[in-house]
Amino acid sequence: MNPGLLQIRLRWDDPATGERREPILSVPIALGREFAQMPASLREQRVARIMLDSGQVSRFHALIEQDSVGVAIADQNSSNGTFVNGTRQTRSFLTNGDTIQIGPYQISVFLDIQSAATPIGDSTILFHSETDLPVPDATSTPSESTPTAPAARSNFPPPFFQAQQVSMRDLMDTELMVHEFDYAAIGAGLGSFIWVDLLRLCGARLNQVVAIGMEPQPYARYQRLCQNSQIPLHERLRSNSDSCPDNIWGFPSYAFRESWHSFRQGQIGSALKYLWQVFAEPTLAETYTPRSGSVFASIDREAQRIGWQQIFRYGRVLSIRQTNDGRYAIAYSRSTASHREHAFIVSRYLHLATGYPAIQFLPDLQAYREKTGDFKSVVNAYEEHEHVYQKLEQYGGTVLIRGRGIVASRIVQRIYEARKKNPHISLLHLMRSPKPQGNKFGKAQRQVKHHYEFQPFNWPKACWGGEFRAVLESADPQQRSRLLADWGGTTTADRHAWQRIVQEGLNQGWYKIAFGEVERVEQDGQKGTITYIQEKDFKGKTQLEADFIIDATGLDAKVNANPLLEDLVTHYDLPINALGRLSVANDFELVEMRSSGQGRVYAAGAATLGGPHAAVDSFLGLQYAALAAVDSLVSTRAPNLRYLNGLTSLTQWLRWVTNQAPNQP
Amino acid sequence: MTPTLLGRWQSRLLLLATVGLLVTLPFSMGWIVLGSYPVFLWVLGYVAVFGIGWDLLYDYLQKFRWDRDWPAAFQLLAGIWEAIFILLLFKTIGLPGIARTTPIGWFALHYSLIWLAVFTMSQTLMRVVFLRSRFRGGQWL
Fold this sequence. Notes:
The structure holds 2 protein chains of 2 kinds. Chain A is of the alpha/beta class.
């Protein structure tokens, strides 16, 4: 590379996954949807070509080049325009810290490439391999308890697990316990529970099914993440009324159930309100969402009904291998603090639903924690951080929130509640850039207010069972990432209460929205933390002082963040999709895991994003994936499974209503 | 609700041919008022046939919505509009099978009951018997 060329750094978060991209590039830089449509060279200079995959981006959308005055961006007659700092421009000079918006991509520009450097590459908080709690400081815990690749651990799994296939004889020779099942669910969280529930409805017997995981309640981790991110039992989730993990039919929906409950307590007004909400949502009424406590209670009932406590088995899965008889061997640890125990399970059919392996953490905040060892002032919204609110309620102070999704909204609400106990609390909401307009797709556009982008759920509604579901399923991998970029992005729900809080806060001055790219965060003895914002337009540096910083940017689900999946992918050379997740077929099978025999492996949840379904990490999305996988099992004549047709579905529904077990044990 | 065009057509035809017919029979067989009134069967038929066309319009309108959804309230408004349309046609230019003198009251009662029965079934029994239809925009075939 010619050292005389001007280099700049671009930074954006992938609209589908939220993952950060941050290349350093030599000017000129072409931005567009199709590589071949962008010029390879200009005036004998090589052009850096950046592909932005979205239907809102033109094939060759914009060009960043240098002239005698400075660096400028020129729109290339694109259909949807190029915005610089929120204003549409045909040509505009760029200064340090400017934001370019092209379709769903918000790209920050850094001319001073050194100062903008992100301190560390991979910035996540992993879940503890034994307690499943987020581990804020992975480096200080003993290596045995941090999640590491199976190969790095003691003498289990045994050396013969290095082979492509393991023999049943070798397994037996270890003299460890070997249990055999037809169906094994790995994870034992909500994804596993929903799959097992459907298997039971289709005729699987209790002794045919096992679910291996860390906690007996399938919603344990989900509930913990909800509670940490300020959704206690009485608060409402961001989930549809008929997305019922306990009921595949979505009937009676949560709104019906809550309405009936209110009616019986004589609260006729509330009863009618919930029915009106589901009738008129989202246009004429605020979208109904169930209380988290009601959802957990309904799962408890269903778990009891299908015999989950007999299906669940405590254990941490370390490795999965094909067996020489066409099945799968699962090596798992049952070790607890007091004793070590290892065992195997052999199963013909597997279902992988291991959930989010990690919490995303902003790199500058991670760097702050590593430098200062201060884990109290800078927290992630998904970590336990009750002390923040306690301190605020007691002493007052300033909180800085990063991120503008649903979690940020919940935290704004929590701070609003804390302010009722202590009015000396103020809130600074730091966003990377203004949000002048929402994503566009076809003839429709997403609504934006106060720089928050609104959507009832985390994907457009039609992604679950409507037009978008069908479009995505029939799209090729390239089109899929484009569609996900167009439909994705950080959004929050359009709830009246939240809007009122934001408006009130802005009017009264205790809530402020600031924009900028963070350069670094430092500790300040008296004031807590200081966030340095990237210099812009040479107006000098901005400093934001706050007692606490809450990162509300989200969860991470790349395959390589999960040691079990990473091991499976490298061992069997499994394909990874464009978003870095497991590549699954339309029925959610990991086709490359088939061997000589009848065995099949399916996956569900966050690890399959980028595949046939968008809303993979939602209740209804998990039900969709489970239905696809179980229907596929039925068609391969898996033992005891029957297709749920109109009649058997009706029979099973009546059993659900009357709370009878789905079939004979 | 997030119906697709094919889902709209399939649900409409299935529900009108089942619960729609069930509601119509007492009217047409004269179990409510003595005599035979095939006019109610004609109404049922027109709701189905014109509906195939209206569904094209609804599906087009749905594309202007970011979520590509169709609230239940819209379903009600569409139902009212479709009734007015049939009423206007048979009262003005006339429709084969429906006399211009057909009382509006009876038409309204019959039509409302069909709409209510179809709507209720689509939200309840349909979900139970065709459990995959809600993941396929209402397609049950």
